[in-house]
Specification:
The chain has two domains: 4-159, Region D6 of dynein motor (Helicase, Ruva Protein, domain 3, Orthogonal Bundle); 181-361, Substrate Binding Domain Of Dnak, Chain:A, Domain 2, CATH 1.20.1270.280. 56% of the residues lie in helices and 0% in strands. The chain has 14 helices and no strands. It has helices at 4-7, 13-32, 49-69, 75-86, 94-107, 136-144, 160-179, 194-206, 216-225, 242-273, 280-290, 296-299, 314-334, 349-361. α9 (216-225) runs antiparallel to α10 (242-273). The chain starts with a helix and ends with a helix.
């Protein structure tokens, strides 16, 4: 889209070239920021060249009009049209809109006309600046010198964001390698099919290990008599004590996860037997259990949000399930608080600390 003729389209040429480079740099950053997942954008957006072209067209007309009338550029108008209209028309999340407007506020200003304007104010290995050039080839030569792996600082992210991205990328690669392995027949010379092996693994090993379901009515009654701090809460109403409320919430969330696990395992067995339809979700879960990976339904809800702890292997995930059940069951069955707590074994560790603060304060 950008060539030598395009760089000489609007007067004054030097300011036009700086703005073209700045908008292209902005476009590249928001495109690549998506690779960081939720750290980059709350919702991934399909920004494309049409957004870039529309932004260029507006800046072209705005600069031409200001030059003809000898008036200053309206940076508020440029930032609004690029951030709120051209690109912002795709943005639905408030935080993402705020983020994009921050990019426009920093990179679409008078300062881009300074000689060798630098985009990254933080100290990094490579300084991203607008080259002092007029030929298209010089710009391309400078772009070619940019590092292949950009530091997260240029996107406004913490350096640890790159670690998160690399872990996610490695995990996806390993999952892909496992998914493309032959799955037509069982291993070990047992003569069983893949589905039969999965069914045996579920019925003989995994399902017998699962703890029993919680009964909501029993939980409520036990919460009312679970001991709390002296002087806080009346007998028979201890379920109003902050830490007991937290326990009830944890039991509710654990019960929901346990229900999902049991339901998914039962559905896999029924689908293998042919009593229910073999849906894509069940096929994915069977493939995961066959490879001894954690089925996606155990860790994420349909929107992709995390609902449980993340581990690489199914055995580690099941162990985490049993350990969490042991902690919660020990607390609720004895109706008194244990002498110590496994903080990371809670769904909401911050809620535990908040409830503790409330009790101490009261």
């Amino acid at each position: 889209m950008v060539n030598q003729d395009f760089l000489e389209k609007v007067e004054p040429y030097d300011k036009w070239r700086s703005l073209v480079f700045s908008v292209c740099f902005l476009h590249s950053c928001v495109q690549e920021r998506r690779k960081f997942g939720p750290l980059g954008f709350c919702i991934p957006y399909e920004f494309n060249n049409a957004d870039l072209e529309a932004s260029m067209l507006f800046i072209d007309k705005h600069m031409s009009q200001c030059t003809a009338t000898n008036s200053p550029y309206s940076w508020n108008a440029i930032q609004y049209m690029v951030g709120e209209v051209q690109y912002g028309g795709r943005i639905t999340d408030g935080l993402d809109r705020e983020l994009f407007n921050a990019y426009c506020t920093v990179w679409l200003t008078d300062s881009v006309f300074q000689q060798n304007y630098c985009f990254n104010q933080a100290v990094t290995e490579f300084h991203y600046h607008i080259p002092d050039a007029s030929e298209h080839g010089r710009f391309m030569e400078y772009i070619g010198k940019m590092p292949g792996n950009d530091t997260p600082a240029i996107f406004g992210l913490h350096p640890n964001a790159d670690l998160t991205f690399r872990l996610k990328e490695s995990s996806e690669m390993i999952d892909t390698l496992l998914d493309i392995q032959p799955k037509d027949s069982g291993g070990g010379g047992s003569g069983k099919s893949r589905e039969e092996e999965v069914k045996d693994k579920l019925q003989k090993d995994l399902m017998p290990m699962l703890p029993p379901d919680y009964i909501e009515l029993e939980i409520r009654e036990k919460l009312k008599i679970t001991k709390g701090p002296k002087g806080l809460g009346e007998p028979g109403k201890m379920d109003l004590v902050p830490l007991n409320i937290f326990l009830g919430q944890e039991l509710q969330r654990f019960g929901s996860i346990l229900s999902i696990v049991k339901g998914t395992m039962a559905a896999m067995c029924d689908a293998i037997d042919g009593t229910i339809s073999m849906t894509p979700d069940i096929v994915d879960s069977i493939n995961a259990v066959f490879d001894f990976r954690v089925p996606r339904k155990f860790q994420y809800d349909p929107t992709g949000a995390e609902i449980s702890w993340l581990t690489a292997s199914l055995s580690g995930w099941i162990k985490g399930l049993l350990d969490r059940y042991h902690q919660l069951n020990l607390w609720i069955s004895k109706c008194e608080r244990p002498p110590s707590f496994w903080l990371t074994g809670f769904f909401n560790p911050q809620g535990f600390l908040t409830a503790m603060k409330q009790e101490v304060t009261r």
